Amino acid sequence: MxxxxxxxxxxxxxxxxxxxxxxxxxxxxxxxxxxxxxxxFGRGNRIIKGYVVEKTSVPEYxxxxxxxxxxxxxxxxxxxxxxxxMAAWIKENYGSTMNxxxxxxxxxxxxxKPVTKDYISLNVDEETLKALIGKYSNDKRMKSRVRLLEELxxxxxxxxxxxxxxxxxxxxxxxxxxxxxxxxIRKDTLYxxxxxxxxxxxxYLELNEQQKNVVDSIVGEMNKKNGARTHLILGVTGSGxxxxxxxxxxxxxxxxxxxxxxxxxIALTYQNIKRFYNxxxxxxxxxxxxxxxxxxxxxxxxxxxxxISIMIGPRSALFTPFSNVGLIVIDEEHESAYxxxxxxKYHARETAIMRAALTDATVILGSATPSVDSFYKAKNNEYMxxxxxTRVKERPMPKAHIVDMREELKAGNRTIFxxxxxxxIDDRLKKRQQIMLFVNxxxxxxxxxxxECGKVIKCPxxxxxxxxxxxxxxxxxxxxxxxxxxxxxxxxxxxxxxYLGQFGxxxxxxxxxxxxxxxxxxxxRMDMDTTSxxxxxxxxxxxxxxxxxxxxxxxxxxxxxxxxxxxxLVGVIAADMxxxxxxxxxxxxxxxxxxxxxxxxGRGTEPGEVVIQTYNPEEYSIVxxxxxxxxxxxxxxxxxxxxxxxxxxxxxxxxxxTSDDRRLCGExxxxxxxxxxxxxxxxxxxxxxxxxxxxKINDIYRYVIYIKHKEYDKLVYVKNGVERYIDMIPIYKDKxxxxxxxxxxxxx
Length: 748
Ligand code: ADP
Ligand code: ZN
Ligand code: ZN
Description:
This protein is an alpha/beta fold and 748 residues long. The protein is built from 22 helices and 30 strands. The protein folds into five domains: 3-105, GIY-YIG endonuclease (3-Layer(aba) Sandwich), CATH 3.40.1440.60; 115-190, no CATH class; 209-393, 3-Layer(aba) Sandwich (Rossmann fold); 395-445 and 504-640, Rossmann fold (3-Layer(aba) Sandwich), CATH 3.40.50.300; 651-742, Alpha-Beta Plaits, CATH 3.30.70.600. Residues 459, 461-462, 479, 481-482, 484 line the site of one zinc ion. The site of adenosine-5'-diphosphate has 15 residues, from helix 8.
């Protein structure tokens, strides 16, 4: 007899374990890990769905009481055992239920019928056909049959939709002819092809020396028995990393394996994707979050059926059901979007490395500003490091000016543009070259406060300030955590003063002032407001790319991986904003944003310049960003991390405890941190419990405990202990929600 461990497909924590079922004789061959099945459940033997996690010949308990698997779910795509392993790994390492972990690795959870197209052809020989046509021609009511048969004798095969629309033959006639075996119907699955409107242009760039060296080295490792498996490319902006990825992909694909390319959603533009399409044609597919569930399902299905061998997409593309992945590329590997913001809070980088290990595949991480975490690992030989320090065709790096805005003020300039920036904008407008103005809005920009009593307008449900917005004539304040909105007030609700002001500079005011100052300039703005509609951000980028505007003003969105050859000036309006977030990575983020922003300048034939306006001209993240010197920045930053026992030198995890009961939440958090403390794990640091920086979201209170240890496994050990402890105490289990975050990017 054989048995299957089945996980019941409901997101109910209490059912988060496997149940054993007997595999009926007739299903023995088709049941394997990953197959979706129907099983009788509970006293009433209600039939519900579940996934087979494991198959075994050893029963775990009394076989006479064990139930039989009812059936296999028709039309479901079985998930590979690889996917089950990934889910188990995610559950263990990031804290989650197995159910949720499974739902994460099987991105299309609902069954969606593939679109099929029916084709009609004859099922009778020439002679029979003649006889039939003869017979039907005598009957007026049979006219449409004659039309169809005559047409088919010429066309051989016709799509059913054409028969219905063009020949005016009804569905019932088709059915009758089919039932009488006069015609046959062939069903063809149609895939919604995301590239259906693209024309393939063969493009092949001869790699330069620097690119060739990196490719040779990576491919060399791939073909070695115990070669390096994870590579980090530190390549300055414009050094041609994409060509390197494509060459490595070509190598893997030629060996019959598949490749996954992760690109941050914001950089998944037509322009970027097209490069892959031109090189690999129909072997490539993409997914993105704007696609319908059906479209995504189709792409995964094509992957599973071996119809494509390269998948490009954001984080979730990592779970493409390829059977033999040979390469996973993570472009712009420093991006915080690679970390999931909902449970399980997995990081695509680590998960990719784990997935790659299953099929002995290679991982390539690439960035001009690698995360300090990855560079640390490269330094410690966990990853193999490759450097690309010159731009293609020896294009120079942009020339940088750091402008001290305090000096500007002293000299009597009260505007948000320094004189240097104004002059350079003027110069570029005259030369008909393009300009990008980057408004760094991380942190507290946009909040509204009273200049008399100092009150900050906050969300009533969350412990965060509301952000000022303007849409047409409407001015309103919005909470970015829960969506709460109110119309902007004229007077301070605390003291009645009418001096309510916005703090920080927004993209809208930059746009307004630029238009006032250079009224002939054509300006585009790209931020949350102008890109909220479907395809909004693509539209703006295309317009700018087609040179329909001279200046693009925007938030972080504009700095990510775009390639506009005509941009020769980048202005950073307020470089400091991201320095003020309460987060140990504030400096890393500032460096990354500024370097990436500067990297947008001078990518074409004309050299570029960048103006960084700041109140902290000596801050090392700003100084090294201006010179695009990653190594110097890293060496400075890692000293600080060592000193403070922060990642990557130490591993750190956040335990977030939330509840709608404030008192219970605080008491439980302190109780839990006390227990962790008393567990006496050598070298473990416990910080808190304390109220989270954002102490309330949507009326749910938040407490946080940070734990740090040199070894990651010790943190996982603590997580498992906390999970067991919560399980033991009914009121905790009932009223608390506990989340783990092993790569806390922000302070909670
Ligand atoms: P990165 O991702 O490193 O910033 P890209 O891969 O986007 O750089 O390349 C920058 C530009 O240089 C692109 O327009 C690309 O088409 C071009 N390019 C890359 N490699 C070559 C090459 N070997 N010869 C000519 N042009 C190249
Ligand atoms: Zn006031
Ligand atoms: Zn809110």
